[in-house]
Amino acid sequence: MTPEPSTPVVDVTFIGAGPSGLFGAFYAGLRELSVRIIDVLPLAGGQLTALYPDKTIYDVPGHPAILAKDLVANLLQQTKKYNPTLLLGERAATLTRVPLPGGAADESCWRIETDKGIYLTRAVILTAGIGAFEPMRLANDSIPPFEGKGVAYIASDFESFKGKRVLVVGGGDSAVDWALALEKVARHVTLIHRREGFRAHDSSVNALQASKVDVRLFHEIRRLEGQGRLERAVIFDNRTQAETTLEIEEAVLALGFKADLGPIREWGIETAGRRYVKVNNRMETNLPGVYAAGDITAQEGVDALNLIVVGFGQVTVAVNYAYARIKPGGKVFPGHSSERK
Ligand SMILES: Cc1cc2nc3c(=O)[nH]c(=O)nc-3n(C[C@H](O)[C@H](O)[C@H](O)COP(=O)(O)OP(=O)(O)OC[C@H]3O[C@@H](n4cnc5c(N)ncnc54)[C@H](O)[C@@H]3O)c2cc1C
Fold first, then answer.
1. Does 126 contact ligand 1 (Cβ within 6 A)?
2. Which atom of ligand 1 is nearest the CA belonging to 39?
3. Cα 188 to averaged position of ligand 1 atoms, centre (Å)
4. Which residues contact 72 (CB under 8 A, 6 or more apart)?
5. Same CATH fold, 137-255 and 10-133+258-339?
6. Contact 27/138 with Cβ under 8 angstroms?
7. Cβ(130)–Cβ(259) under 8 Å?
8. I need a labelling partner for 259 at 20 to 30 A (CA). Which of 89, 132, 177, 265 fits?
9. Rg of the Cα trace of the chain?
10. Is the CB of 71 under 6 A from ligand 1?
11. Ligand 1 pocket residue status of 24, Cβ below 6 Å
12. Which residue's C-alpha comes closest to atom 49 of ligand 1?
C-alpha cells in the first residue's frame, strides 16, 4: 500500500525548476501562496543549467547581456525570498485528484507522487519545459555502481573536488568549462574525448589548451574500478586500443542530457503532439486547477515561442488565475508590487 503524504497541502506546486518555474514560484510567493517546486535535476535552472550555463543571453528584459548561470542564480535569489520548498532530484511520476484532507465532502486537491515522496497541492503549474532531463549515459556496466560514489553527471559544488584527482569525459561546452573550473581546485584533472574536435566555444578550447588540464583525445573509458567507491579508471586510445590506468577519486561524465515529457503524457492532460500541453488564454489545461507555462505549452492559434521571457509572462498569468481559484473571492489582478509595503 502506498504510504500517505506527511507533508502539508500547499497552495501551488510547480513541476519544473527552469526559469518559468522559478519565476512562477517567486510570483506565487508574492501573492502569499504557499509553494513547492519539484525538479528531477539535482540543480535548479532547467535548460539554462543543463544545456548552456556559460552562454550569454541577450533577450531577457532588464539584462542587456547575462550568462545563463547568472540568470539562474538571480532567479533563485528572487524566488527564495518567500521560502518555497525546493525539491531537487525528484521526478514527478503521477498526478491524481484526491479528497482534501480535513476539507468539506466536495473539496479535493491534487496528489503528486514522485520517486521519493507523495505531495498534496491545491493547484499544479506544469513548468516542465521539454520534459524531465536525464543525463546521457555510456553503455558501460562498470559505471552505474559508482554513480553518487565518485561518478557525477553535473559538476556543481566545485569545492567538493578540492585536492582530488578528477577525470572529465566529453567534448562539449560543459566538459571543457568544468575541466577548467575544476583545475583551479582539484589536485589533477584529466579530460578525455573520443574525437579530435571539441564542440565548445573557441575561447574555452583555447583556455583549455593553455591550462594544466591533461587532455587526451581519442580516449574513452574501458572500465571504472574501486572497492565500493571510485578509485581508478582504465581508459583506452580508440585508435590503438592501448590502455592506461588513471588513479582518480571523481569522474564527471559531461555527455549531455536528453529530455522526455514521459509520465506527464499519462496524466489525462490534453496534449498537442508529443511535446506540448494544450492551454487556454488563462494557462489552464483541461484538468481543473492544473495550469501550464513556458516551453511545455501550446496555445491555440499561437505558434510555439520557446523563449524565457514568454515563460515569465505565461507563468504570471497562470499564478494569478490559480490564486483566484484557490482563494475564494480572490482577484486575478494582484495590484502592483511597487505599491506593496
Ligand atoms: C542552447 C540554448 C540556448 C538558448 N538561448 C536562449 C536565449 O538566448 N533566450 C531565450 O529566451 N531562450 C533561450 N533558450 C530557450 C530557453 O532556455 C527555454 O525557453 C527555457 O529554458 C524554458 O524554460 P522552462 O522553465 O519553460 O523549461 P525548462 O528550462 O526546460 O525547465 C523545465 C524543467 O522541468 C523539469 N521537469 C520536466 N519534467 C519533470 C518531471 N516529470 N518531474 C520533475 N521535473 C521535471 C526538467 O528537468 C527541467 O529542469 C535557449 C535554449 C537552448 C537549448
1. no
2. 44
3. 33
4. 19, 22, 44, 45, 48, 49, 53
5. yes
6. no
7. yes
8. 177
9. 22
10. no
11. no
12. 46
CATH classification (class only), 137-255: alpha beta
Q: In a 3-state reduction of DSSP, which class is residue 111?
A: strand
Residue 48 beta carbon below 6 angstroms from any ligand 1 atom: yes
| Domain residue ranges of the chain, discontinuous segments joined by + | 10-133+258-339, 137-255
Instruction: Provide the total of helices (H) and of strands (E) in the chain, helices listed first.
Output: 6, 22
Place of cell 572529465: 168
> Which ligand 1 atom sits closest to the C-alpha of 296?
26
Least Cα distance to 295 among 87, 53, 46 occurs for: 46
Q: What's the pLDDT band for 174 if we cut at 50, 70, 90?
A: confident
Closest C-alpha to 246, from 187, 194, 177? 187
Does residue 112's CB lie within 6 angstroms of at least one atom of ligand 1?
A: no
pLDDT digits (tens, 9 = 90+) for 185-242: 999 999 999 999 998 889 899 999 999 999 999 999 999 999 999 999 999 999 999 9
Cell of 61: 528584459
Q: Does ligand 1 come within 6 angstroms of the Cβ of 16?
A: yes
Half-sphere exposure of 239 (CA within 13 A, CB side): 7
Q: How far is the CA of 262 from the centre of ligand 1 (A)?
A: 16
For atom 13 of ligand 1, the residue with the nearest CA is 307
Give, in words, the CATH class of 10-133+258-339: alpha beta
297 is written with which cell numbers?
A: 505549452
